[in-house]
Amino acid sequence: DARVTQTPRDKVTEMGQEVTMRCQPILGHNTVFWYRQTMMQGLELLAYFRNRAPLDDSGMPKDRFSAEMPDATLATLKIQPSEPRDSAVYFCASSNSGRAYEQYFGPGTRLTVT
Amino acid sequence: GQNIDQPTEMTATEGAIVQINCTYQTSGFNGLFWYQQHAGEAPTFLSYNVLDGLEEKGRFSSFLSRSKGYSYLLLKELQMKDSASYLCAVRGGGGNKLTFGTGTQLKVEL
After folding, report:
1. Given B41, B97, B102, which is nearest A42 (Cβ)?
2. B31 and chain A: CB distance < 8 Å anywhere?
């Protein structure tokens, strides 16, 4: 049963600290997405990659957020420095470009910045 | 840009049928999606429409009218486990980028 995995599942940190979230896409999927979900804004796309190359990061605050894919099995989202307004659930999703209409979401990382 | 509207909340009775509407405005439309999200969980894919008409998948059906910028998700024989948020999402403007609506919270009652 192939699944997207994310670590950590929960993260509580203080304002100003660096936060790194990791995602392992489903093996064979070549497109990876990072989303943020809050009660106020709903689900927002932050960035996405195809074949490890960034295609769109227009939804991501550039001054503090960065997203990378060091290899095909790992995507990272980093916040430095973190702020209370970054508190949200961050989801990673992956898809196969051959069936690009179906994105599989990971369980999410619940981030709380105090 | 893209704009998606769907009702915030709906309530229905177990065993009944409910229709959740979604209207959208987008450039370069390339598909409409419905996702289900239970509280505290990740969204899961329900359906995909790119051509006009009805797509049926068990108890769930999704309809699309591209000329009207309109879709609905139809849930039949409602069960308590169908209580969840239903997210309408549109792909447009090229690529695989999805823009999600804020979701419709469906509550199924006895």
Report:
1. B102
2. yes
Q: What is the pLDDT of residue A98?
A: 65
pLDDT at A61: 87
State the Cα torsion A96-A99-A102-A107 to the nearest 10°: -20
| A89 neighbors A77 (Cβ within 8 angstroms) | no
The band of A99, judged by pLDDT with boundaries at 50, 70 and 90, is low
Across the interface, whether the CB atoms of A101 and B97 are under 8 A apart is answered: no
- Measured distance CA(B4)–CA(A5) in Å, rounded: 29
CB contact under 8 A, A100 and B50: no
CB A32 within 8 A of CB A75: yes
Nearest-CA distance B81 → chain A (Å): 19
